[in-house]
Write a structure and sequence with these properties.
The chain is built from nine helices and 16 strands. It is an alpha/beta fold and about 400 residues long. Strand 9 and strand 10 form a beta hairpin.
Amino acid sequence: MEFDQIQSTLREKGLDGWLFYDHHHRDPIAYRVLKINPPMFTRRWYYLIPAAGEPCKLIHRVERQNLAGLPGRELEYSSWKEQHEGLKKILEGKSRIAMQYSALNDIPYVGLVDAGTIELVRSLGVEVVSSADLVQLFEARWSEDALASHLAAGKVVHAAVRAGFAAIQDAVRSGKGITEYDAQQAMLRVFEGGGVVADEGPVAAVNKNTANPHYMPMRDRSLPIGVNDFVLLDVWGKLNKPGAVYFDITWTGFVGVEVPRRYAEIFEIVREARDAAVDFVQASMTSGRTIHGYEVDDVARGIINRRGYGQYFVHRTGHSIGEDVHGNGANIDNFETRDTRQIIPQTCFSIEPGIYLPGFGVRSEVNVFVEESSARVTGEIQPAIVPILAATY
């Protein structure tokens, strides 16, 4: 735990402390920031890092081990009355603290503390503010090892995309037939061989299903893929080891030798929006300009709006990436929410604009890693729709 840095940051932000709370592992952020992994967590616990001075623990006597190894004064409770009194003691003299809370739940990845607990803390005369910026600083930033795991996973994820297209190509050329589910399984075999795992299997979608941004093929609910079909592959994964972070991309292809003009036109608009967002981030970091998640979304969305397809871009431009595929840093969003968090070094996010029309949808997704004075796309960048029957994999 970066204890000294957390305290310094709290003082800079005019906060009296950062109060961590959990019950039944509702807040995974707390465990990552504090770097603890208790064997059991069926009782409520609190841990206060003050802006200055000694931290304080409030733990149930049944589970004294929950915060073992963390520094600080320790208070115990058994009854709910004793718990309330203990919380009052550790917050004594504090007027403004951060918790995993988000006003109006604008950032649901951070809004993890239940409303009742927020009410309890406020009843003690303490103002609760969002820990969103703190979380980004102390949980969403990547170490060198995390970045290395991302790049290694990226090689496997790109290989899986190529395998998906190749499976479609081979099946169509041989006439043996293939479904979305079959293409998904071909990609998963690459994952297994490359030591990559994911929370869910990759997406292989065809025609109308490509217009559903969160479509997932199933064995008993999967369309066949054939000649003249439009295909979208959305693939994400991470190395199967502790601390590894995700790699997440989307590519599109056409089962033919030449891509029809309509598909190419829509892809070109999406590509332009994708590249404009990436260019904006790169130019801003190089020049030292401070930017925020919502501003990057505005760049991509502005292009799609100007081209007349704004109503068909139905999700944010991108999301933070971390140990979860949807991480806890700034999202590229001024649509589903207005993410005012600053884009900071050592964080990564997707850029994935899309246009979803009746009959088909196009999305192109890359990952952007931000450094002190630069930003880079960490994998291959799709320049055009892949003509599956003409390409060699």
